[in-house]
TrEMBL record:
Domain of life of the source: Bacteria
Metabolic or biological pathway, per its Swiss-Prot or TrEMBL entry: Lipid metabolism; butanoate metabolism
One MF annotation (Gene Ontology) recorded for this entry: oxidoreductase activity, acting on the CH-OH group of donors, NAD or NADP as acceptor
InterPro entries: 3-OHacyl-CoA_DH, 3-OHacyl-CoA_DH_NAD-bd, 3HC_DH_C, 6-PGluconate_DH-like_C_sf, 6PGD_dom2, NAD(P)-bd_dom_sf
Chain sites annotated for binding NAD(+): G12, A13, G14, A15, M16, G17, D35, E95, K100, S122, N146, K278
Keyword Repeat: no
PROSITE patterns with a match to the protein in the record: PROKAR_LIPOPROTEIN
Domain named 3-hydroxyacyl-CoA dehydrogenase C-terminal: residues: 190-286
Protein name: 3-hydroxybutyryl-CoA dehydrogenase
Gene Ontology BP annotations: fatty acid metabolic process
Stored PANTHER family: 3-HYDROXYACYL-COA DEHYDROGENASE FAMILY PROTEIN (PTHR48075), 3-HYDROXYBUTYRYL-COA DEHYDROGENASE (PTHR48075:SF5)
């Protein structure tokens, strides 16, 4: 393998996986998107077609670029076939440690010995996955943001065993596909963005629960007072209230501190299935 990442496999065709795969294809990589469900791959392909067709219609992107990217994007339900020639594998399956460890163990067997195995996880650090493989030095987090086609930042996170070569290839890959990578030298819960974001979410929920201001007013405070593109409540609806609930739950399980338990509003929304945009209602109605 040379220093360049040419062939990328993305495991899991949810919203994140699909857009990561397309970002890499637009960046010139040969990409295979894998999911165990054929229907999920079809759904991902249709969603990507929709997003990119709109870009062509709005003259944001030339048709030829989009067509070329789709030629570089392959779909497969066969994991072994999907990673057989990969230089880099990015796992984006459900946030469940046991499942991710099984996936990493399978990837280790199926991918070339030279391939980097990365996780897009924001809550599971790669040192929890590295020992499920025989190549700990080639394992790291490469964390994209939602929606991955739009958001430029990528957090590359080293675990104690990640080699410098792996780090520099991961950073270069992110740059080559037009992203802006930052390197976290040590694993820390929430990395950088989610630590900052969760502090904002916590404060927004506190202000709302204390009756200091309404959801709409707190969102306005951030959009008009801080120039955030959208306010924290709109953003929780976009990323999913269940995601935020689970982040809090995991933190509480780690610290055991009452203050880290999901706030009563989060628990209520979660139990009512009001998970944000994807369920039609969260803090706002859609
Ligand atoms: N997928 C792909 N592209 C999308 C999209 C989506 N779901 N939603 C919007 N876009 C694109 C549109 O196509 C449009 O592209 P164009 O400029 O080429 O026409 C552009 O984004 C702007 O879209 P709109 O004008 O329709 O809407 P907005 O102005 O409201 O922008 C947004 C949408 C870009 C999502 C904007 O609201 C935003 O930046 N929100 C903040 C997102 C954010 O903070 N993400 C980080 C979340 S934290 C995270 O991901 C961590 C994880 O671990 C949980």
């Amino acid at each position: 393998m040379n220093n360049y990442i040419e062939k990328v496999s993305v495991i899991g065709a949810g919203a994140m996986g699909a857009q990561i795969a397309m970002s890499a294809a637009l960046g010139g990589c040969e990409v295979t998107l894998h999911d165990i469900k054929e229907e999920q791959l079809k759904k991902a392909e249709a969603e990507l077609q929709n997003i990119l067709n709109r870009k062509v219609e709005k003259k944001r992107m030339p048709k030829e670029i989009v067509e070329k990217a789709f030629q570089k994007l392959n779909f497969s339900t066969d994991l072994e076939e999907a990673v057989a020639e990969a230089d880099l594998v990015i796992e984006a399956v459900i946030e469940n440690l046991e499942i991710k460890r099984k996936v990493f163990s399978a990837l280790d067997k199926a991918a070339p010995a030279t391939a980097i195995l990365a996780t897009n996880s924001s809550t599971i650090v790669s040192s929890q996955l590295a020992d499920a493989t025989s190549r700990a030095e080639k394992v790291c987090n490469i964390h994209f943001f939602n929606p991955a086609l739009v958001m430029e930042l990528v957090e590359v996170v080293k675990n104690p065993q990640t080699s410098e070569e792996t780090v520099s290839k991961a950073m270069k890959f992110a740059e080559d596909i037009g992203k802006t990578p930052i390197l976290l030298k040590k694993e820390i819960y929430g990395f950088t963005v989610n630590r900052i974001l969760n502090a904002v979410f916590d404060e927004a929920i506190y202000l709302m629960e204390e009756g200091i201001a309404t959801i709409e007013e707190i969102d306005l405070a951030c959009t008009k007072g801080l120039n955030y593109p959208i306010g924290p409540f709109k953003l929780m609806d976009l990323t999913g209230i269940d995601v935020n609930y689970h982040i809090r739950k995991i933190k509480y399980e780690e610290t055991g501190e009452e203050k880290d338990y999901p706030q009563k509003t989060l628990v209520q929304k979660y139990e009512e299935g009001k998970l944000g945009k994807k369920s039609g209602e969260g803090f706002y109605q859609y």
